[in-house]
Amino acid sequence: MSEPSPHRHHALDYVELTVTDLDQAKRFYAEAFGWQFNDYGPGYAGIRSPHGDSGAEVGGLRLDQDVRPGGPLVLLYSADLDRSVQAVTDAGGQVVNGPYEFPGGRRFHFTDPSGNELGVWAER
Asked: What's this model's pTM, rounded to 2 decimal places?
């Protein structure tokens, strides 16, 4: 009998961000959020699950010449939004909206050094 799959039907399974400088992107996300990576050569790095080395990858950073504006907005959760704002700016990101209140809590949007826009939210 096979192992049950850790993937859930119709659930967000993997997020891939296009970046213009892979080393800079890895440094930024490691400093701002503590992310760790699996390197697959000069053009790709897998984002490790926050559940340790045994967890599945949750996404990747893909090197390309251009970052497409728009696309899906990825939201991260934070237990301390103000601390996350500081971590993003300290790591070289730019807050582009917020922090602001919304019915479920507070959030802000930022751009990483390649220009990808992401959001971070926290409960009230």
From this structure: 0.82
